[in-house]
Design a protein that fits this description.
By secondary structure, this protein is an all-alpha fold. The chain is globular, with a radius of gyration of 23 Å.
Amino acid sequence: MDFLSSGVLDPIGSDARRPVIIAFLIFIGVALLWLFTLATAEEENPERLYVANRSLSPVINGFAMAGEQISVVTLLTVSGGVALFGYDGFTYALDGLIMLGVLLLLAQKIRTSGRYTLGDLFALRASGPGPRIAATAVTLAITIPLIVIQLRVAGSSTALLIGMTTDGAQVVCTILMGCLVACFAAVAGLRGNSFMHVAKVPLTLAALAVLTLLAVGKFDWDPGSLLSAAADKSMAPDEYLKPGFWPYTASFGSLNTFGNHMVFILGTAVMPHQILRISASRSGRSARRSMSIATGLVGAFILLLITTGFASAAVVGASGIGAVDGTGQSSPIQLASEVLQDGSTGRIALITVLACVVFLTVLTTVTSVTFAAAVALTHDVFARGKRRRTEAGEVRALRVAAVSVCAVGLSLAAAIHRYPTEFLVAFSISVAATCVFPALIYSFFWSRFNRRGLLWSVHGGLLLCTVLTVFSPIVSGTAFALWPQASFNWYPFQTPGLISVPAAFALGWLGSVTSPREPQVDFRHVQLEILTGQRAG
């Protein structure tokens, strides 16, 4: 790993630099035009902005659900993990597909219940402001780290594409992309964002398919030869296609690896923006159909992503990838610059299309996460105050919340630009797996679940995630930690999920069975709501 540094090579070259910059400027112009169109087309009605009036067809929402999975982190980081670390990166890529199976279990119940924020879902079994405030805190704990991570990756990749890889240029690119996202999140409702996802998905799949075909063509259309070349050009040919090569997990054992996969699968299935997306379906059955369509599209995306990762290793090599970016995030861009001859029109066009895919991916995914956080703040906090709020006031609050959330995420992304951000990934996904998944399972399937059980599970899970993450090896004591020189990592695993997820289930059970006998939400009413969409009484 010693040779994996940044800023050593320029993979784009001067011949493709000008078209890429022109495409970037055209993209910004089209994005602003789209922004103005959305500003005049969206109705000033909170519910219609939040969930697109629940009018999206299964096909449109299926593409949009798939688009939520095609984030800039997945596109660049996962493919880079496959390119540099082979088998281990391949297994983490598959988690995204398994996650959809978990979401499919809950999708119809979430949509039929008519609830679209975590506060709404928590209120199924617990009344009062406490559950909604807890849900808002959990939503922010999940979404703000995601915004920071994605804006940072977006800034680094944008700086690479325009040929300015210094730290200052990366911070400037991060700020510019963040400002654009803030504008979109403040103006576009869920409907507008859905159509941007619909445009992104086929463009991304087409670009990755072309990259894959060109790479396989360089090896006489023999996938076996491509895989052998990927292993030969890796950092350790004998270990590349075996488990345990991923440097972040190599020294922590199989139990740690199991915990990482479990947290990723459960956490990404119940993200707030996923729940909001499901709620935009016309009905529970429509939500299941959308999930089926999304599963097929995401399956194709992951297959292409894995192939692109191995192709990057075979064509560029681990040394070439690491010379530009030690995390491998630049590997798809480097592959696009190497599969065709320098100076050719096809090479310039391919790099330009991939640049547009990266820009569009940043815009859609960060906007989705920001919008979900803003909806939670507005719907669960602002609209529940003692003073009655008008629809226009609630919409204004939504705009302000979207800009505020994005500003916080953007400030943090710029402030910690020089530091590793793996702890943010672990914390965000662990909070979702710990605080949201057990609460939803209990709410939908256990008759004795009540207010105390919900609050114990959510607050206890959030506290455990915070404490265990702070004292984990991704914060101190290891080469990839936030503070590698310090050593207070008494918790032995990288993610808190192995402890926090079972503990959240246990706290939910204990709080429910020890709750004093007082009037609770009748589970028969909850079943009626999640099965028919009708509220009792």
